[in-house]
């Protein structure tokens, strides 16, 4: 078994807004090994990005870690200072953001922005750094790298800019790459290219990837393991096969039912998940999905379900699974 | 780039032409002539004077004559300060005004930008609140009021600073302060909101994610983007300083151009009015062109049209 | 039973707990926030903004002082009280002192009197009335002209738009104060002679100078407003929700009323409010140069100018109008900022 690179235990994080404490993460736990590709799926506001940003210490004001431990590559993240974070950011862990149109500084050339991160974290000279930047552009499949290095972000297309973002992220060969919806803002054809590129680079460089998305197609294509998040909880975790072919949480089932199927019967309709996400200012005492759950039971409304292990790699938090165990137990 | 500059300059010249034309005709709308007020002069002498300065000709001809000499760089003879050309008067007075206004620009930028940054970086804390209070009050005080208050306290009551003229370096303190208060306060507010806006941009998050230190983030990534609105303000700021200088020069008895302009209007010194208007308009228009070009250099996204 | 031991929690559970929950029970968990419309939401934000609310109260107080109080005041702004020249605040002239000694009550001169023996407090109030009226009316004029011009330009599009915008470009680069001063000079006397003609009595009442200031502001200050309105209408015209509304079959009138107006309104209100202090500013400045509202009607700027000469001996005469101008500009700016935060969603941080 390979080395454990990331371990998050019971992470709790809140945003302290004037309206009150918004509980964005309510006890998130998972771990990753070197080379793993983990997909985190969930709808907007479910805490996917917050989880990932906290690993890099990028939690936006007024957010604060209020509990739990996070270990990454031998660093205890929850105890790190801003100065220590700066050493690992862009170096051991880097990130690609959702919108490549706004993620590059408009007033500096592409080359300048790639070289910046190389000079920060390596002992390369300026010349070596520019050579490395050129090499990186080739690596991410940008033609005419010498010309591109001198161009400004607004002169490149969205897909091209996202490749530049990837080049920046990979500049120092990070152990972990966080991809925060890297393809959401791109055209479908470009999406496929970018995903292919990431898959390629992952095999070449052997880094771990956390893929944050609400697009189940992307996860199926890229990831080995999937964490499904809802209202700051991981409600189900498992391998891609387990999640897609044997979903156990009602929310996961809903997500999968809402994907169009190629082999579907003509009249089969997509099933949307009814209702609104919970208000994280006053999260319910029970299962956060209960108000929208078709199979909601009385217990769901006031007690948080415990963890049900379905296999070594698959677990979920749902009272229905507990009910099954209870009934099994009752019979036995 | 060259094409753009040529285009901007051409448009600038056109604007100056419009200003000159408007001024010429508005000015001639003002009832009473330049020599009417001088009762000592007889009707015949008035007639002779008008002939000498070409004021007896039809307005259209006067206009064409004036424009013709203007193209040759001649702004005519002053009607009131006899024997002196407008060019002479302007070149003797302009340096005085330029020095005060220039100092005020420097003060406004050197104080306003750092204050704005300080405020944005301490958003919501007491330093921010304090700066905001000062900046908001600064915007509410017209320069003639601040001049008078300064003059009254430091000049007359405490007798710390000279009240008249610009004969020693200390004499600059009060007029420059009075002129600089408004633009400083304005730049502080502008810088604060612009920096706050930039700090919320995605590329700032990218810079942090790269591991760039906060000092370098401020100076390299934030400032260059946040300074853009301040640069656009330089044109209007010059115009505002000009406005301020009219009264400040009057209050502190500074022999500058602003005072001449105001007295030229009351005296109907047509040539002087035309000369100063064209000069000041040209200054502001040139400043606007320079700002546009500077903007283009700092922000590569701006396309040259 | 082994399963139960694995899950100690389930020991506390009953079979009834696994009964399906009713819809009502589910709904009770969902706290829906009241859905509010743009105006209600904006008003709520505005009410929460303490600085803006204090400013509003101050504005109302100033308005009361300017429009109501002078008619209740025992002195009028033109009335020259004999022997009461250059009184300090709360000082009485010999004649007034005599009356007081005789047991009559004399209303105190809160801010003293000027050199012509006029009660200064009421003069400051009248000055405030003039300055405030100039600010309000000029802003409304600027709003009307600018909004019309900008909207026409944006809706017409094409070469009309092009020409109209070139005109504003040129006007924008011209330093307006020069033209303001020239115009103020130029139209002062024609208006004064016009005011004496029959049918223009209202002008006499208002003061030809005041009319000229309205004209000047209206002629020059609409440019900024026109640009803002045009860009607003243009972005809205192109915006997806308007396209969506059109695709859904909404009529032109409905689109303008529901979408364009609602979205422009915030910006219009904010820009107009912020125009008020800048009009007050310019008027006081013009008055200071002797080109503003003239005697006998005092404006704050002219009151300040009159006091400059004697400021060493009678500082109150200068400080009172100067303070008033500054407070007015300050509160309108603060209130405008509050409005912007509340009603201009695009500028909201």
UniProtKB/TrEMBL annotation, chain A:
GO terms for molecular function: ATP binding; ATP hydrolysis activity. SMART domains: AAA. It is found in: Cell membrane. Keywords: ATP-binding, Cell membrane, Membrane, Nucleotide-binding, Transport. One of its GO terms (biological process) is peptide transport. NCBIfam families: oligo_HPY. This is Oligopeptide transport system ATP-binding protein.
From TrEMBL, chain B:
GO terms for biological process: transmembrane transport. Keywords: Cell membrane, Membrane, Transmembrane, Transmembrane helix, Transport. The chain crosses the membrane at residues 9-30, 101-121, 130-152, 172-191, 226-248, 270-295. Residues 94-295 form the ABC transmembrane type-1 domain. GO terms for cellular component: plasma membrane. It is a multi-pass membrane protein. It is found in: Cell membrane. Gene3D superfamilies: MetI-like. Belongs to the binding-protein-dependent transport system permease family. This is Oligopeptide transport system permease protein. It comes from Gemmiger formicilis.
Automatic annotation (TrEMBL), chain C:
The lineage of its organism: Bacteria, Bacillati, Bacillota, Clostridia, Eubacteriales. It is found in: Cell membrane. It comes from the Bacteria. GO terms for biological process: peptide transport; protein transport; transmembrane transport. GO terms for cellular component: plasma membrane. This is Oligopeptide transport system permease protein. The chain crosses the membrane at residues 51-69, 134-158, 170-187, 207-229, 316-335. Keywords: Cell membrane, Membrane, Peptide transport, Protein transport, Transmembrane, Transmembrane helix, Transport. Residues 128-336 form the ABC transmembrane type-1 domain. PANTHER family: OLIGOPEPTIDE TRANSPORT SYSTEM PERMEASE PROTEIN AMID (PTHR43386:SF24), OLIGOPEPTIDE TRANSPORT SYSTEM PERMEASE PROTEIN APPC (PTHR43386). It comes from Gemmiger formicilis. The keyword Metal-binding does not apply.
């Amino acid at each position: 078994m390979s080395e454990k690179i990331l371990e998050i235990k019971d992470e709790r994080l809140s945003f302290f807004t004037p309206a009150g404490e918004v509980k964005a993460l309510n006890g998130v736990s998972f771990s990753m090994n070197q080379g793993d590709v983990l997909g985190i799926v969930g709808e907007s506001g479910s805490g996917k990005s917050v989880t990932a940003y906290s690993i890099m210490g990028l939690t936006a004001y007024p957010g604060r870690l209020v509990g739990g431990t996070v270990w990454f590559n031998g660093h205890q993240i929850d105890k790190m200072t801003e100065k220590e974070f700066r050493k690992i950011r862009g170096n051991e862990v880097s990130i690609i953001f959702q919108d490549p149109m706004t993620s590059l500084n408009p007033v500096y050339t592409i080359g300048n922005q790639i070289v910046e991160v190389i000079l920060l974290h390596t002992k390369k000279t300026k010349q070596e750094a520019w050579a490395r930047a050129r090499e990186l552009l080739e690596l991410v499949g940008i033609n005419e790298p010498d010309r591109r290095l001198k161009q400004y972000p607004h002169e490149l297309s969205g897909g091209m800019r996202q490749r530049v973002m990837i080049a920046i992220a990979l500049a120092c060969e990070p152990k972990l790459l966080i991809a925060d919806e890297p393809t959401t803002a791109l055209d479908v054809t470009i999406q496929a290219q970018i995903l292919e590129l990431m898959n390629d680079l992952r095999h070449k460089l052997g880094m771990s990837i956390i893929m944050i998305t609400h697009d189940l197609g992307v996860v199926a294509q890229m990831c080995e393991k999937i964490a499904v998040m809802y209202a700051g909880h991981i409600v189900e975790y498992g391998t891609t096969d387990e999640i897609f072919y044997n979903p156990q949480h009602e929310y996961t089932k809903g997500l999968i039912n809402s994907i169009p199927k190629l082999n579907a019967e003509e009249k089969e309709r997509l099933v949307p998940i009814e209702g609104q996400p919970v208000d994280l200012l006053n999260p319910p005492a029970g299962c956060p999905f209960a108000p929208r759950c078709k199979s909601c039971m009385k217990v769901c409304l006031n007690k948080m379900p415990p963890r049900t292990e379905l296999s070594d790699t698959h677990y979920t938090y749902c009272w229905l699974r507990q009910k099954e165990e209870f009934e099994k137990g009752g019979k036995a | 780039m060259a094409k753009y500059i040529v285009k901007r300059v051409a448009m600038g010249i056109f604007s100056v032409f419009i200003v000159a034309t408007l001024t010429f005709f508005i000015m001639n709308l003002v009832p009473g002539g330049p020599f009417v007020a001088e009762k000592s002069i007889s009707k015949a002498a008035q007639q002779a004077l008008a002939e000498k300065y070409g004021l007896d000709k039809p307005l259209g001809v006067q206009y064409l004559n004036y424009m013709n000499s203007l193209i040759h760089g001649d702004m005519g003879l002053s009607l009131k300060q006899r024997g002196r050309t407008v060019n002479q008067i302007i070149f003797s007075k302009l340096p005085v005004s330029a020095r005060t206004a220039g100092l005020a620009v420097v003060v406004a930028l050197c104080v306003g930008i750092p204050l704005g940054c300080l405020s944005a970086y301490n958003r919501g804390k007491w330093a921010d609140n304090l700066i905001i209070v000062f900046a908001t009050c600064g915007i509410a005080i017209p320069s003639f009021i601040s001049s008078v208050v300064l003059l009254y306290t430091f000049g007359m009551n405490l007798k710390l600073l000279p009240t008249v003229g610009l004969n020693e370096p200390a004499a600059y303190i009060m007029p420059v302060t009075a002129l600089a208060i408004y633009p400083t306060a304005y730049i502080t507010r502008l810088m604060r909101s612009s920096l706050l806006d930039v700090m919320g941009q995605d590329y700032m998050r990218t810079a942090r994610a790269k591991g760039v230190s906060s000092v370098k983030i401020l100076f390299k990534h934030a400032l260059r983007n946040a300074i853009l609105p301040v640069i656009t303000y330089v044109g209007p700021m010059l115009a505002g300083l000009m406005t301020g200088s009219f009264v400040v020069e009057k209050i502190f008895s500074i022999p500058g151009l602003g005072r001449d302009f105001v007295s030229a209007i009351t005296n109907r010194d047509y040539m002087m009015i035309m000369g100063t208007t064209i000069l000041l308009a040209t200054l502001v228009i040139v400043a606007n062109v320079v700002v546009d070009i500077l903007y283009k250099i700092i922000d590569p996204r701006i396309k040259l049209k | 039973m082994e399963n139960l031991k694995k899950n100690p929690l389930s020991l506390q559970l009953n079979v009834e707990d696994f009964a399906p929950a009713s819809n009502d029970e589910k709904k009770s968990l969902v706290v829906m926030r009241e859905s509010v419309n743009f105006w209600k939401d904006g008003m709520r934000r505005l009410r929460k903004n303490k600085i803006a609310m204090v400013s509003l109260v101050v504005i109302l107080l100033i308005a009361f002082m300017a429009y109501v109080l002078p008619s209740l005041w025992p002195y009028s702004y033109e009335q020259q009280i004999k022997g009461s020249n250059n009184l300090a605040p709360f000082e009485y002239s010999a004649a007034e002192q005599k009356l007081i000694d005789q047991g009559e009550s004399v209303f105190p001169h809160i801010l003293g009197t000027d050199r012509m023996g006029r009660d200064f407090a009421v003069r400051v109030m009248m000055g405030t009335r003039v300055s405030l009226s100039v600010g309000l009316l000029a802003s409304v004029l600027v709003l009307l002209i600018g909004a019309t011009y900008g909207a026409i330009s944006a809706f017409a599009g094409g070469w009309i738009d092009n020409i109209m915008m070139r005109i504003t470009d040129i006007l924008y680069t011209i330093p307006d104060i020069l033209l303001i001063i020239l115009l103020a000079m130029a139209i002062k006397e024609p208006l004064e002679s016009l005011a004496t003609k029959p049918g223009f009595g209202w002008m006499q009442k208002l003061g030809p100078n005041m009319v000229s200031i309205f004209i000047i502001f209206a002629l020059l200050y609409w440019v900024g407003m026109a640009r803002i309105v045009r860009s607003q209408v243009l972005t809205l015209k192109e915006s997806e929700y308007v396209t969506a509304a059109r695709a859904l079959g909404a009529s032109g009138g409905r689109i303008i009323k529901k979408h364009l107006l609602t979205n422009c309104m915030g910006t219009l209100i904010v820009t107009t409010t912020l125009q008020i202090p800048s009009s007050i500013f310019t008027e006081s400045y013009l008055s200071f140069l002797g080109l503003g509202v003239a005697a006998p009607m005092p404006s704050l700027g002219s009151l300040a100018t009159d006091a400059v000469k004697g400021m060493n001996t009678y500082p109150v005469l200068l400080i009172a109008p100067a303070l008033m101008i500054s407070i007015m500009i300050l509160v309108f700016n603060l209130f405008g900022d509050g409005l912007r935060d509340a009603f201009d969603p695009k500028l909201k941080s």
